[in-house]
Amino acid sequence: MITRMTRYSFILLSGETKPFLKRLQELGVVDITRSAKPVDSGSSAMFGQCREITSAISFLKKTDFSKSPDAGAIEAAAREADVEGDAVRILSQTRESLEKLRAAYAASEKERERRYPWGEFDRETVGKLAEDGLKVRFYSVSKKKYDRSWEDMYPLYVIDDSGSSVLFVTVAPEEGYSFPAEEIPPLEGDWKESRAESDRISAGIIKLEGKLLKLKDRIPDLQKELDETAARLDLYLAEASGESVADDLVTVLEGFAPTEMESSLSKEFDEMDMVYVKEAAKEEDNPPIKLKNNKFVKQFEVLTGMYGMPVYSEFDPTPVLGPFFLLFFAMCMGDAGYGILLIILGQLLKRMSGSLSRLGPLVTTLGIGTFFVGIVLGTFFGISLADAAWVPEWLKKIMITGEVAGYSAQMVLALGVGVFHICLAMTIKAIGYTKRFGFMQNISTWAWLILILGIICIAALALLGIMDKEATRWAVIVLGIISGLGIYIFNNPRRNPLINIGSGLWDTYNMATGIMGDVLSYIRLYALGLAGGMLGAAFNNLAVMLRDGIPVPGLDWLGFLLIVVLGHALNLAMSCLGAFVHPLRLTFVEYFKNSGYEGRGKAYRPLGLEK
Fold first, then answer.
1. Measured CA angle at 90 (ends 89, 92), to 5 deg
2. What digits encode the pLDDT tens for the residues 147-178?
3. Architecture of the domain defined by 1-39+244-288
């Protein structure tokens, strides 16, 4: 199946491109293309707007107060907050105000900690002392420097001496006063006043944090605005060729990544604080193709790649290609003994290093298929198993031998497989084209499919005696009318009926000559298997003749083994070549043509670090 893709558009200043691409290499999942466009005043303004919106979205996504001790109060504030209007402007103002309040809160808490050891005092009393010409001075002296005699010499009152310092005040007139210690800045109030100020600021912070929380509800609006602005910028850069500002360039990157990676990639891009837009990839975007199949089918993806990857709206042909290529290969080889050799070769390749090791599983699979099909076809290293006395009778019963209607049963089997393969291709074409272009554009495709499948079914039922002549006649008439209307009259409902008739006649000529030739092409499955078996038998006979013709003991068997080993090695090599090329040809020509497969897609190659 084809992996669903998400399309990403990135817009960066050229100076930001290298670090961004380096990060994409580390992620290793984005298939990227790039182009450079000049920056003018118009694009610069839109680019700046995109940056602001992207930064706002990134900030709001990270905003979380669930672990705050004031989480309940913040949520209550969010319910009452008013965030109508320009979300980016509101966010900017809120963040600026919040930053100032948090700084003020930190200063208030620091002042409260400074005041706390001094305890409480009445500011009115201090004011009255000032009116009487007396000034209260504050001192903090380490215990080592504090002199107890000061208490007798000066109007001094100790506030606290429980710590490493002694805190005290003096009350003395403004004039003629001196003291042997440095005065600290006077307190503007006691610690309770600082705490009240901190509480007031904290309430303001909670209110602003609630506003931020409420702004998270505006993320979809911001995302829509970003998409619209980025689309305008992309269109502007495509149409305008304005003069660059300060010789700067905007780098426009377009990338595709599997949709299953969307959440993790969005998180990474949000942390980069960059402008990007994402949307589900569409066929017109021509996204790269990444195939996703099970372990068995995945072995055959290399064959799909040899022809061309599907376009985004097509079906992945590999699930059909794989089993049929295995069957075709095995029929062309047609020898169970050669299947055993391929299995051994596949296991040896798996133990090798480099690209050859990746072929090991496929060669092993082809060997297993060749072994079982070779048993059914009755050949083992050129020996006819159906004629061998040492082969059990139950095994001979599953072998396909003899004739059907005067023709070789194996040839009839090859043609039957071909008919089924082509009918399957036409069915896939009808379903796929209907999915992509609609039923009305593919009436003719369905009509041909109904006609061909109908003829096969009617013929089979008649030959088996299930349908009598009268029923067969009426079945053929009804089938002909239904399919004929679709092929000649309604093949394109929007077109003139006379043109439809002419188009139907041309299709009839192509189908009559093409289908017959396509079906006959499958005889090669029988012919190659027969040729390989006959050549293997010829080498066996030649080896036996050489052994019987040499009178020297020991030398006769040496000649026998030499002919057998070299002969079957040559036959194996030739058979493998034919068994690879011809099934590939049947797939690429007969199957892909009748299934409507285009193979114009490009493979998914994500930007990554070299290994």
1. 65
2. 888 888 888 888 888 888 899 988 888 777 88
3. 2-Layer Sandwich (3.30)
